[in-house]
Amino acid sequence: MPKKSNVYYDKETKTYYSVASLGFDKITGKRMQKKKRGFKTQKEAKDWHTETMAKHSKKAITNGIKLTFKMFLDNYYIPHYEKTVSARTFYTFSSNLKRLAYFYDMKIVDIKPIHVGYWQTELLKEELSNTYVRLLHGTLVSIFNFALKLEVIYENSATKLGNVSKKRQEVDFWTVEEFQTFISSFDLNKYKERLYYTAFTLFFMTGLRKSELQALTWQDIDFSDNSLMVNKSLYYKSKNDWIINPTKTITGIRKIYLDKTTVKILSDWEKWQKVENNDFVFSQKGSPMSPTSFQYMLKKHCELVNVKPIRIHALRHSHASLLLSLGMNDLELQNRLGHTNISTTLGTYSHLRPTAMKEVADKLDGILSIK
C-alpha cells in the first residue's frame, strides 16, 4: 500500500500515527505540532490529519483577516528573520522596510497582485534602480512566503505577479592609467594620506570587498609567501560599535597572492602603522575604518587630479577588468574574487571581453581538415 503523507507506522504498537504541522509560535518562533497515535489504518490517520489541518487553516485565515501587513511584520516576520541572518544583513533589511510602507495598513489577506504591481510602478517612478526594486520585491516575496508557512494567507501575491524585468547594469571601472593618475595625488609623507594610498592600492590590486579590507589584520598578511588570507568581514555601525563576521559564504574564504609592488607598499605601511600598535591593517585610533571615509577620500582625490569618481565597489570591478585584460580565465577570476557561482562572474564581467568570441573562432581555425 502506498505511504500516505504525514502518516507514520509505529513498529512497537503496530499502529499508525500522524503529525500535523501548525506553523510557528509567535513568541518563541518554535514549530507547533499536533500528534495523535493509535490509528488502526493509514486512512484513519490521514483522515484525522486532514480534519485537523482544515480546522487550523480556517482559524489561521480568520485571524489573518484581522492582521495588517505591519502587524504581521512586527510580530511574526521580523523576530523570525533577525534570528536567521547576520547583524549586517538585518541592518540592511531594516533600512529597506520604509519602502514597504504602502502595504502597512492593508490587511495581509487583502493584498493582491494588483497592489504589488502598483507598488512596483510607484517605486520605479522614484527613479530607484532596477536592481534595488528587484531586491525590494524579493524581500516582499520572503515575507509572504513566511505568512504562507504560518498559514495566515493562502497565496503569495508577489510571486504570482512576478518581479520587474532585470536590466544589465553597466559595470563602472577604472583603467590602470586612471588609477595611476588618482593614486599619484597622495602625499606619502603624511600618515593619513599613506593609509588611504595603501588601502586604495590594495582595493585595486586584489579586488577585495570593502568589508573584507576593513577586517584585515596583520596576521592575515604573509610577507614570506607574498599573499593575504581573506577569512572574515567587518560590519561597521560606528567607531565603538562594529562586529567581525565570518565571510558570507565558504567561497569567500580564499588566499590571494600579491604582486611585489603591492607587497612593498604593504610592508612600508606596516612600519608606519606600528606607531598605533594596532592589529588592524587599516584603522583610525584603534578602531576599524569607517566605510564612508573611503568614499570621501576617493572623491576628494578624484577632484584633485580630474579623474572620474567611482564607487569603492567599482575598484573591485576595476581589478576584474585588469585581470581579464591579462588573460585570466573565468574560473580563476571567480576564485580570486570569492564568487559563490561562476554565473555571478560571467553575468557581471563577460561583456568586458567583447573580442572573446572572435578569439575562440580564431583558435578553431585549422582544427578541421576538410578535403
UniProtKB/TrEMBL annotation:
<protein>
    <submittedName>
        <fullName>Site-specific integrase</fullName>
    </submittedName>
</protein>
<dbReference type="GO" id="GO:0006310">
    <property type="term" value="P:DNA recombination"/>
</dbReference>
<keyword id="KW-0238">DNA-binding</keyword>
<dbReference type="GO" id="GO:0015074">
    <property type="term" value="P:DNA integration"/>
</dbReference>
<dbReference type="InterPro" id="IPR013762">
    <property type="entry name" value="Integrase-like_cat_sf"/>
</dbReference>
<dbReference type="InterPro" id="IPR011010">
    <property type="entry name" value="DNA_brk_join_enz"/>
</dbReference>
<dbReference type="InterPro" id="IPR010998">
    <property type="entry name" value="Integrase_recombinase_N"/>
</dbReference>
<dbReference type="InterPro" id="IPR050090">
    <property type="entry name" value="Tyrosine_recombinase_XerCD"/>
</dbReference>
<keyword id="KW-0229">DNA integration</keyword>
<dbReference type="InterPro" id="IPR004107">
    <property type="entry name" value="Integrase_SAM-like_N"/>
</dbReference>
<comment type="similarity">
    <text>Belongs to the 'phage' integrase family.</text>
</comment>
<dbReference type="Pfam" id="PF14659">
    <property type="entry name" value="Phage_int_SAM_3"/>
</dbReference>
<feature type="domain" description="Tyr recombinase">
    <location>
        <begin position="169"/>
        <end position="362"/>
    </location>
</feature>
<dbReference type="Pfam" id="PF00589">
    <property type="entry name" value="Phage_integrase"/>
</dbReference>
<dbReference type="InterPro" id="IPR002104">
    <property type="entry name" value="Integrase_catalytic"/>
</dbReference>
<dbReference type="Pfam" id="PF14657">
    <property type="entry name" value="Arm-DNA-bind_4"/>
</dbReference>
<dbReference type="GO" id="GO:0003677">
    <property type="term" value="F:DNA binding"/>
</dbReference>
<keyword id="KW-0233">DNA recombination</keyword>
<dbReference type="InterPro" id="IPR028259">
    <property type="entry name" value="AP2-like_int_N"/>
</dbReference>
